């Protein structure tokens, strides 16, 4: 869920019937802002707060990536 204004581009935001904003997911569950070739965030400087909690390349980050490889 996007809970603060970090400048996430509109094309990556989904809104539910209550107006809550989340990052758009592709049909297979991947975040729409992740580059599939590099596995890097394409909006890193404007990523949501929750994404900022996970340091890129940290153990938590690697664990999450492995779920989709």
Describe this structure in words.
The protein has 69 residues and is of the alpha+beta class. It is built from two helices and four strands; from the N terminus they run ββββαα. It has helices spanning 49-52, 59-66, and strands at 13-15, 21-23, 34-35, 40-41. The strands form two sheets. It has a two-stranded antiparallel sheet with strand order 1-2. The chain has a two-stranded antiparallel sheet with strand order 3-4. The longest helix has 8 residues, at 59-66. The radius of gyration is 12 Å and the shape is globular. The model has no long low-confidence stretch (mean pLDDT 88). This is Flagellin N-methylase.
| Strand coverage percent | 5-15%
Structural class: alpha+beta
Total number of helices: 2
Query: Main sheet: which strands, in order across?
Result: 1-2
């Amino acid at each position: 869920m996007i809970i603060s204004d970090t400048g996430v581009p509109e094309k990556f935001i989904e809104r539910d019937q209550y107006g809550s904003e989340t990052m758009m997911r592709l049909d297979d569950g991947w975040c729409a802002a992740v580059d599939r070739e590099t596995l890097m965030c394409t909006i890193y400087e404007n990523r949501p707060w929750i994404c900022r909690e996970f340091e890129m390349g940290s153990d938590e980050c690697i664990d999450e990536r492995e779920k989709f490889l």
